Amino acid sequence: MRSTAFAVHLLAAFLVLVLVPGNLDLLNAADVVASGLNNPRGLAFGPEGALYVAEAGSGGAGPCGPGPEGERCYGPSGSITRIDLAKGTQSRVATGLPSLAGEGGNFASGPQGISFQGRGNGFLTIGYGGDPAEREELFGPAGSSLAHLARMVASGNWSLENDLGDYEMAANPTGDEVDTNPFGILALPSKQIIADAGANDLLEVRANGQVSTLAIFPNRLVLAPPFLGLPPGTLIPMDAVPTGVTQGPGGDYYVGQLTGFPFPVGDANVYRVPENGGDPEVHEGGFTAVIGVAFGPDGSLYVLEIAKNGLLGAFGGGDWTGGLIRVAPDGTRTEIAPGELWAPGGLALGPDGAIYVTNKTILSGAGEVLRIWP
């Protein structure tokens, strides 16, 4: 009888460890809560508790023109999907948004970031990736809708707000080549904070439409990769490429860095930018290809890597293994759900204590949202 009782208690303890969400450290189980998405990127919880996903779309029939990953074609296939986690349903609530994509609808630019400020104020970034002066020349009149801040109301109707491409052309805060690709967004009372991955800056858009620069992320010198055939020790400039943005416990902004070519492994940072703007400071370093950042209620920083083994291996060899790292307040780092992520792109912490991540974010029709218990 004692051995039977012991076995029962052991089984009960195992079930508590495995099945209670707060005790999933051993498994970090991931389950799919939405699928069939077109290049899903940023995601955010709306004020009514549903989870919203920005889908960059799958481009369309054209016009077509060059892009960072090759030729891409325009089409109004971008959208916003709403996920009702309680009911287990998903539906597209906003459609017809601008989109550019390559062959097969993959590697799209379109709706990339989403954040809410009140029920009637869902704010979106519409990406681009290139010189904004060429938008209409390459993609016709509809091309002017790229590189924008957009607003979505509760009904799903959307409208273009600020032309961030025009701002880059007029201000060019870094003084480098004119390039824009609005990506991460954080909606706050009376303003939106936007990380422009092409312009290498952090922008603030006020309620009156005024756009200003909070910070610029300058180029860094890094070692040239051997395949370039340059003398050993040669340094070359690398773009910062800021991506995800979040607000920390003290009010400052924290920005993840993807890095540009040569995409060195372990050289991506998370920067801290003062709330009122200023020079960015490295908050945590040693990451690779950071695409999203978020803070947990205990002050832990969550860092999402789109390709933890490096973008050269991703583009060259198809290794899009992603990484999700929790940095505890004491600095301890823990990888969550290793092996579960493939080209992840968006990160949101849920009120249920779970972590939500967009996965397969460079694919049309195969994108998904994962729920991970930390």
Structure summarized in a few sentences:
By secondary structure, this protein is mainly beta. The chain has helices at residues 2-19, 135-139, 164-171, 311-317; strands at residues 30-37, 40-45, 51-55, 64-65, 72-84, 89-101, 111-116, 122-126, 148-152, 158-163, 182-188, 191-196, 201-206, 211-216, 220-223, 235-238, 242-247, 253-257, 268-273, 281-287, 290-295, 301-305, 323-327, 333-335, 346-349, 355-359, 367-372.
Describe this structure in words.
- This protein has 374 residues and is mainly beta.
- It has one domain (28-372): TolB, C-terminal domain (Neuraminidase), CATH 2.120.10.
- Helix content is 10%, strand content 43%.
- The chain has 4 helices and 27 strands.
- The protein has helices at residues 2-19, 135-139, 164-171, 311-317, and strands spanning 30-37, 40-45, 51-55, 64-65, 72-84, 89-101, 111-116, 122-126, 148-152, 158-163, 182-188, 191-196, 201-206, 211-216, 220-223, 235-238, 242-247, 253-257, 268-273, 281-287, 290-295, 301-305, 323-327, 333-335, 346-349, 355-359, 367-372.
- Strands 2, 3, 4, 5 and 6 form a 5-stranded antiparallel β-sheet that branches.
- Strand 26 and strand 27 (367-372) form a beta hairpin.
- The radius of gyration is 21 Å and the shape is globular.
